[in-house]
Design goal:
24 strands, single chain, mainly beta, 350 residues, 5% helix, Immunoglobulin-like, 2 domains
C-alpha cells in the first residue's frame, strides 16, 4: 500500500514538472498551390519564356522575396540566365544569379493570391530530359514561407516535311475597244495574240492594251517583261519609229510626230506604257516610252509583284494589270503594211 502511494506521488510530481517546461514548436513551410511552369519552346538549346503560375498561402512581407531556382542539382544540364528578363508579381524587382531568379519586395508586401512570374530569354540546356525547378517565398529574415517543386521536359523538335510544287500560270488576254485603262479609253481591240491597228490616219492617236494575268506560288513574286523583234516595218523596209521621233528616253507625255521632211524617224512613232506602278520605270498616269531597242536584250518590265499572286482574283498591280500601246503617224509616213512581233517573258522567283 505504501509502495502504491509512492508511485502515485512520483507521477504527480513528474507531471507538474513537465507542465512548467518550455515547449519549442517547429516552423514548416506551406505548400504553394497549383504551381506550374509554362514554356514557349521545349527544344534543347532554345531561348524560351517561362511563365510560373502559383497560389501563395502566406503573405510575403516587406523585404521578403520569391526565388525560382532553375539549376537544381541532379538536372541533366544547366539553364543560362545571363540574358534573362523578369516580370515580377506586384511591386517586386527582378534580379538573377547563376542558378536562380529573384523577385525582391523592398517597398511593400505581396498579399496571398494567384500570380504569374515571367522569365524571358532563358537559354535551355542542350540535353533532353525532365528538369526540376523550385519556387519558394521567404520573409525578411530569409525564412521559407511557401514552397513548391515543378518540372518541365525538354524534347527534340519534330521535323515535319512536305513538298509543294512550284506553280505558275501566265496569260495574255485581249482587251476590247472602249475599255478604260490608266491613260484613257482604248480605241483599238486586241486579242491574246494580235494587235491590229487597221488602217491608220495621219494625226490620229490609236490606243490599245493587253491584260497580263499571273497566278503563282513563288515566294518572291514575279516579273513580266516585253520586247519587240523590230520596229513596225513594211515590205520596203520603211518603219514606224520608236516613241518619240525614234529616240527612246525616260517616260514622257505623248506627243505628235514632228514630221520633218527628210528625217524619216519623225514621220510616225509607236510607244508603250505599264499601268503597274511597281515596275522599273515610272509611267505616272499617262507617260510613254519607246522600246529601247530590238531583240531580247531590250526588255521593258510591264508587270511585277513581290509575293505569290492569284491572277484576276488578286488586286490590280499584283495578280494582273494592263500594258498599253499607242500609235500615231503623220502624213509623211510611207505607205504599206507594217508588222512586228512582241514577246512577253514571265519570270517567277521562288
Amino acid at each position: 500500500m505504501k509502495k502504491t502511494k509512492k508511485l502515485i506521488a512520483f507521477w504527480t510530481i513528474l507531471s507538474l514538472a513537465l507542465a512548467f517546461l518550455p515547449i519549442t514548436t517547429g516552423t514548416e513551410a506551406a505548400q504553394l498551390l497549383q504551381a506550374k511552369d509554362t514554356i514557349t519552346d521545349s527544344k534543347p538549346g532554345a531561348t524560351a519564356k517561362h511563365t510560373f503560375t502559383f497560389t501563395t498561402q502566406t503573405e510575403i512581407p516587406t523585404s521578403g522575396k520569391i526565388e525560382v531556382t532553375f539549376n537544381v542539382s541532379g538536372n541533366p544540364g544547366n539553364f543560362n540566365l545571363s540574358g534573362a528578363t523578369i516580370t515580377c508579381p506586384g511591386s517586386g524587382s527582378g534580379s538573377t544569379t547563376t542558378n536562380s531568379v529573384i523577385c525582391s519586395y523592398t517597398t511593400g508586401s505581396l498579399a496571398t493570391g494567384t500570380y504569374n512570374l515571367i522569365v524571358n530569354n532563358v537559354v535551355s540546356p542542350n540535353a533532353t530530359g525532365s528538369y526540376l525547378l523550385t519556387i519558394e517565398t521567404r520573409n525578411a529574415s530569409d525564412q521559407r514561407l511557401d514552397y513548391a517543386e515543378v518540372r518541365i521536359a525538354l524534347v527534340s523538335g519534330v521535323t515535319v516535311t512536305a513538298h509543294v510544287p512550284a506553280l505558275l500560270t501566265f496569260e495574255v488576254k485581249g482587251v476590247n475597244a472602249g475599255t478604260g485603262v490608266e491613260s484613257g479609253t482604248t480605241t483599238v481591240t486586241s486579242t491574246a495574240t494580235t494587235i491590229n491597228f487597221g488602217t491608220v490616219n495621219a494625226g490620229t492617236e490609236y490606243l490599245t492594251a493587253q491584260k497580263l494575268v499571273v497566278s503563282t506560288n513563288a515566294n518572291y513574286g514575279f516579273s513580266v517583261k516585253v520586247w519587240q523583234n523590230q520596229n513596225l516595218t513594211n515590205a520596203m523596209g520603211n518603219d514606224i519609229d520608236k516613241f518619240k521621233d525614234g529616240v527612246t528616253s525616260t517616260p514622257q507625255t505623248w506627243a505628235t510626230p514632228t514630221a520633218n521632211p527628210g528625217f524619216e524617224n519623225t514621220y510616225g512613232h509607236f510607244g508603250l506604257r505599264s499601268d503597274d506602278s511597281d515596275v522599273e520605270l515610272n509611267y505616272g498616269t499617262n507617260l510613254w516610252v519607246g522600246f529601247y531597242g530590238d531583240g531580247s536584250a531590250y526588255q521593258h518590265e510591264v508587270l511585277k509583284s513581290t509575293r505569290p499572286t492569284a491572277g484576276e482574283g488578286d488586286s490590280q498591280g499584283d495578280g494582273w494589270d494592263y500594258t498599253e500601246y499607242k500609235l500615231q503617224i503623220s502624213a509623211l509616213q510611207e505607205a504599206g503594211d507594217y508588222q512586228n512581233t512582241l514577246t512577253y517573258i514571265c519570270t517567277p522567283t521562288y
